[in-house]
Each structure stands twice: as structure tokens, then as C-alpha cells.
């Protein structure tokens, strides 16, 4: 959110240039199959508990931020190339992905990695600062499960966008409390002003379920692995200072 909320021009310009030029380059190079990683950010802000949206629910379009608008446009570009230039296209709308080996600092990391970093940094008995009031609801998909979903989508006959995510919804407060529990520390959560994004997004995974895919990793298990990895990165970064 730190990057998405402050780098609107970079997001729109760089992402649009990539998603205009690469499909054409693929056609010129004779590429037969093309995968686009889109995002559930194409959906509008939703109320907690609101009925799930299927993929067609992205229209009429009302993404919450420019990142979502650009992703929606990228989907349209690729679908046009599929219709008119012979590409076999597959489009996945990613949920919030997390896991080890990902970005964990610098402003472009996802919430699970950011929270793991803050908890790893905190001294036992200390305070962890969290943006917002903790009530926003999200769901997260572990990287191994997401990769499995991509492979299954590429092997399928699904030619329209497909959500890939988990139905294990948690509030930001629950996310932070889970990481603190995993760490074994006694920490206090302090809510501070900062970019939060939408209150909730509830979307259907029925399309990707139709090819036999299901997420296998619970949020707690995935966070446990992620926390241990982030903790090691924090230690190594400390040694380099």
C-alpha cells in the first residue's frame, strides 16, 4: 500500500508500457501461449460479509486504485491480442500472495511480510505499529498454492480471467495477532494513520476450482514459514549494519 498509494504515475506508465509492448513482442517472436498475472485489485471496495463476486463482477468497473485500473486495462489488451493475433492467453487475478523469498522491506512488500518484519524487529514486551484500525478484511494465498494454480490454469481451457485465492478471510488485527503468536513474543499492537486500501474484497474462486485446484496451506502454517524466513533476513540485515 505504501507504493500503490504514492506512485500512481509510475504504476500507470510503467505497467501500461509493459502490458502493451510485451504481447506484441510475443506475437512477433512466435510465442504460442501467454500468461498475464492480473490482480483482485480490479474489483471495487466491498463491505465485510458482502456476497462473493464472480469474475464478471469486475464490471461495471470501479477499482479502488490506479493499480487496479491498469490491471483491468492489461486484461483487455491481452484479450484483444488473443482474439486478433492468435495468442493463447490465460489470465489469473491474484489474491494477496505471501511466503518466503518475497519482498519483505522497502515499501513494496505485502502486509504479511511487513507484519512479520515488524514483529521480528520488536523486542519482547514492545509495540508493533499497524496502519489503520485493524478492521479491514483480507485473504491471502501462499506462494506454493498460487504457483500450483497458475500451472493448472495454463493447462486448462479457461480463456477468461480466473481468480486464484483462498476463502480464509481474516481482519488485519487477526493477521497481526497470528504473527505475534507464532513469534512467541508478548507484544502490544498500536494502530497508526497510514494507507489501508479497501475495507474488503470477497470474490469467487469457482472458476479455478472447476479444474480441480484448491489451496492446501492454511494461513497460520504459511505465516509460520514466512515469519521464520523474514526473521532470518532481519538478523542478516542487522549484522550488515
Largest sheet: 3 strands, parallel
Give the helix tally: 7
- The CATH topology is Rossmann fold
User: What spatial order of strands do you see in the largest sheet?
Assistant: 1-2-6
How far apart the termini lie comes to: 27 Å
- Indicate the mean pLDDT: 95
Sum up the overall morphology in one term: globular
Q: Which CATH class?
A: Alpha Beta
Query: What class do helices, strands and sheet pairing give?
Result: alpha/beta
CATH architecture: 3-Layer(aba) Sandwich
Which bin fits the share of residues in helices?
Answer: 40-55%
Provide the domain count: 1
Radius of gyration: 19 Å
What is the chain-wise order of helices and strands?
A: HEHEEHEEHEEHEHH
Strand content: 15-25%
Give the uncertain stretches in residue-range form.
none
What's the β-strand tally?
Answer: 8
Give a short overview.
By secondary structure, the protein is α/β, with parallel strands linked by helices.
Amino acid at each position: 500500500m505504501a507504493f500503490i498509494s504514492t506512485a500512481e504515475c509510475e504504476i500507470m506508465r510503467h505497467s501500461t508500457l509493459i502490458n502493451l509492448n510485451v504481447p506484441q513482442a510475443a506475437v512477433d517472436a512466435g510465442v504460442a501461449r501467454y500468461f498475464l498475472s492480473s490482480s483482485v485489485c480490479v474489483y471495487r471496495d466491498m463491505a465485510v460479509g458482502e456476497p462473493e463476486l464472480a469474475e464478471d463482477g469486475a464490471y461495471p468497473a470501479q477499482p479502488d486504485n490506479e493499480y487496479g485500473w491498469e490491471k483491468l486495462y492489461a486484461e483487455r489488451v491481452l484479450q484483444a491480442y488473443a482474439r486478433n493475433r492468435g495468442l493463447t492467453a490465460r489470465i489469473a487475478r491474484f489474491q494477496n500472495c505471501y511466503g518466503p523469498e518475497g519482498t519483505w522491506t522497502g515499501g513494496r512488500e505485502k502486509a504479511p511480510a511487513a507484519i512479520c518484519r515488524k514483529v521480528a524487529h520488536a523486542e519482547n514486551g514492545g509495540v508493533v505499529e499497524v496502519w489503520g484500525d485493524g478492521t479491514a478484511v483480507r485473504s491471502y494465498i501462499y506462494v506454493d498454492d498460487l504457483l500450483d494454480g497458475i500451472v493448472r490454469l495454463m493447462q486448462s481451457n479457461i480463456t477468461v480471467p480466473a481468480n486464484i485465492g483462498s476463502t480464509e478471510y481474516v481482519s488485519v488485527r487477526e493477521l497481526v495477532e497470528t504473527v505475534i503468536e507464532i513469534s512467541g513474543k508478548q507484544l502490544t499492537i498500536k494502530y497508526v494513520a497510514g494507507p489501508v486500501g479497501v475495507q474488503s474484497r470477497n470474490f469467487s474462486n469457482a472458476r479455478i476450482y472447476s479444474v480441480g485446484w484448491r489451496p492446501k496451506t492454511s494461513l497460520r502454517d504459511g505465516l509460520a514459514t514466512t515469519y521464520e524466513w523474514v526473521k532470518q533476513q532481519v538478523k542478516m540485515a542487522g549484522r550488515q549494519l
